[in-house]
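Q: Could you predict the 3D structure of D-2-hydroxyacid dehydrogenase?
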Amino acid sequence: MVEDTRVAVLSADGMPEGLERRVAELAERLGAGVALTVCTEDELRRELTRNDVLLLWDFFSRAVEPSWSEDATVRWIHVPAAGVDKMLFGGLIDADTVVTNARGIFDRPISEYVLGMILRYYKQFGLTQDLARRREWRHREPRTLEGSSVLVVGTGPIGRCTARLLRAVGMEVTGSGRRHLDSDPDFGPVLATEELPGRIGEFDVVVLVAPLTDTTRGMMSEELLGQMAQGSYLINVGRGELLDTSALEKVLRSGEGPLGGAGLDVFETEPLPPDSPLWTVPNLFISPHMSGDDLGWRDRLRDQFLANLERWLSGQPLVNVVDKERGYVPVVTR
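A: Sure. Here are the predicted structure tokens for D-2-hydroxyacid dehydrogenase:
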């Protein structure tokens, strides 16, 4: 039994709702000592040398790296987000500190969001709304999802959930990951990343859900965008840096490329600045990094951390452990 565990919570808005009470109940049930402290970014350097566990509740914070030192005592950092690439750095990668993430929390909301984006373009909801505002009654014959081909780039849990949902509505799904697979239970065939040039033009929709790594950074280049199928759509719910947004803007503004439209929920700079040229790009749907957020998501993030904290206090292995070299939780396919 691990006793007297000290937990720091990085949160500019104070202690997350219900966390203090739930931690106290857990500690009493297990007979463990837990000291819970909330801190701001300015206090983080000090708390990293006083605590065993860090809950990075402000998961967009970049304060861990500048606050890190050789005197850090933290042995476990939990990031309540799917992506942890922006907070990994050499000192943390080399340290014995375990990093966990919120894998599993955002799978269904993001996959539903992807489906919604596809439907928006296939069923011309944006055009219908514009015509209604102008009081124009214009009949059209939109596309159907059944039989359309979709490439899901990223074979982690979010990609798998997305593949299952899109397959359920009749779309023909192919995956893309680190290595080629002839058959996968969720995707069917899986293309290796290096196969995308020359193959990406086979798909009506391309969905980016890959983690950000040295391999995937900038993978959706101007060259690949130019190879997409005529009238196809691109959706990015992964990381902004996966995509060359300048090239995307160029393609959509010109109206001469193959893309029929794109939906972006993630960007290199967030929030997207008001003066960003992306706001006025035609046939570009922009949302404020909300594809994984639905009612009750914060409660689920809290409960997931508590479940892992119970494992920690009981001396059991943690789940959702990030491979710090790769930058994500490795997936074991069944």
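Q: Anything worth pointing out?
A: The chain has a mean pLDDT of 96.
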